[in-house]
Amino acid sequence: MEPTTIRSHARVDVADVLRGLAVMGIILLHSIEHFNFYSFPDTSAQSGWLNFTDRAIWDGLFFLLGGKAYAIFALLFGFSFFIQHDNQRMRGHDFRLRFCWRLLLLFIIGNFNACFFTAEILVMYSLIGFVLVATCRLSNRTLIILSAICLIQPVALYNVVRAAADPAYITPAIPTGDYWAAAFRMQSSGTFLQTVKVNLVEGQLASLAWAWDHGRIFQTAGLFILGMLIGRQGWLLKNSLPAWGRVLAISLMAFFPLHGLNTMLPGFITNPNVMRPLGIILSSLANFAFMLILVSGVLHGYYLSPRLSRMMSALIPYGRMSMTNYVTQSIIGSFLFYNWGLGLHAHLGITASVVVGFTVFLLQWSFCRFWISRHSHGPMEYLWKRATWLGA
């Protein structure tokens, strides 16, 4: 009797490179935002060059990474689901119910993260992740259609058409001002326990409502499905580069008109009930196009340039421990900037804050290199994996 070979997908290193870049971008953006705590020192008396660097860093990082680092992270969430689901399929197992349990665990992890950071995304991922369970058996063509529908922002599109046809129509928005104000008060003057209490209630409600009002719910669902499809088609492997070349060309042609229209149209469309949802559509699609440009660039650099490949490979340990890094960023960031910790929001401007963020990244990266040299998973990744397979 011949032995049975258990097949599984090999780990795709470039996915860890992309994941590492995304998490690095997230900490830099969160640092200059003071981890969603928009309190900054008075800069009126600081030197002109420092005011210039503050503005250049803020605008430059948000242009390059704002809405893009998060999108790469979401795309890879769908890709990771495909790898896990298909590995179990090749063993003759159905992973869907186990993944539902895994999403429940992610919901718990996300709420732990929310104790420190009001704008965390893991709780949203745990809720939207069920779309992967619902769609993983559908055809490629159906997945492309569903992803496109989500990415085009159907609710925002409905609001644009409705407001354009009826001048009296008011685009609905969830009132979150009181929630954000409560979070800001605790960030400014609350103790740790007071901050945790507000973050878990008002902070989470405000964050999820913001995601709905700004199109992140549908965009995330679309990216999850697209990431699963990319895994199914093997698009992160080297032989996919010709296809990514076409993606790069199309994305370049799409990004600049979308970005230009999003910048220009507010000067021509005076009805805010038309412009707000139209801005959501344009910015979402522009960020999606730019994200594809970044992913395509990384894939071409990684697979075609030995020098770039060696440089990018340094991020693999950081990407493999993306959840550990994401959660510990929240803990460190809130301690640095919030009142319950060091309260540096009142002392660090944007330039100093990005230096702090990059320093935290370097410390995390150094720890990841040490840890991965001795373990196969990061601490949070290991606990999530072990809990996923409880009772198996």
Helix-strand layout with pairing:
Elements: H1 13-32, H2 48-65, H3 69-90, H4 96-114, H5 122-128, H6 130-135, H7 140-151, H8 154-165, H9 177-189, H10 192-213, H11 216-233, H12 241-264, H13 272-304, H14 306-313, H15 316-320, H16 322-337, H17 350-372, H18 379-388
Helix pairs in contact: 1-2, 1-3, 1-16, 1-17, 3-11, 4-5, 4-18, 7-11, 8-13, 9-10, 12-13, 13-14
Describe what you observe in this structure.
The chain is mainly alpha-helical and 392 residues long. It has one domain. It is built from 18 helices and no strands. The longest helix is centred in the last third of the chain and has 33 residues. It starts with 12 loop residues before the first helix and ends with a helix.
Secondary-structure element string: HHHHHHHHHHHHHHHHHH
What is the approximate shape?
Answer: globular
> Could you give a short account of the major beta sheet?
none
- Which regions have little confidence, pLDDT < 50, spanning 5+ residues? 1-5
The proportion of residues in beta strands is under 5%
The total count of helices amounts to 18
How many strand segments?
Answer: 0
Structural class: mainly alpha
N-to-C CA distance: 27 Å
Keywords:
18 helices, mainly alpha, 392 residues, 73% helix, globular
Quick description:
With 392 residues, the chain is an all-alpha fold.
